[in-house]
Amino acid sequence: MTGFWRNRDGASIVEFALLIGPFMLVLFGVVEISRALWTRQALQDIATATARCVGVLQAECADDDGFSRARTETFIAGAASGRAVRMDAGATDIGRGVACDGLSDAVAVSLRAHFDSVFPFAQALDFHVRACFLDWSAI
């Protein structure tokens, strides 16, 4: 029986089996946190681009009469789709001629998105971002 306890054959596989679970959890956790941060940054970029689009009345956010909410919503949906950010209906708020971050007569864009994780988090990860841009059409 003492030979069994002194035998070191297979020790590496036992150590590997004990460590692979925690290692994979840390690895996938880092990947998932990185995806969440990337999603939040992409949402912020979309809000900033939308605020600028409305502020300077780019063609994507305007029609013949000026500002177009429908075209702006389409712009947001396209930008979100291109960055693989899932946004629900009614997750946008666009304000024109408002005070925003010290700017008067600004465009304020607020966006909300839900982050879908492969891990079952107890608390849902919902992101809310806001961007401001001077409303050049009001000047």
TrEMBL record:
Ranges of residues in domain TadE-like: 10-52
This protein's UniProt keywords: Membrane, Transmembrane, Transmembrane helix
TM region(s), chain numbering: 12-31
Protein name: TadE-like protein
Source species of the chain: Devosia crocina
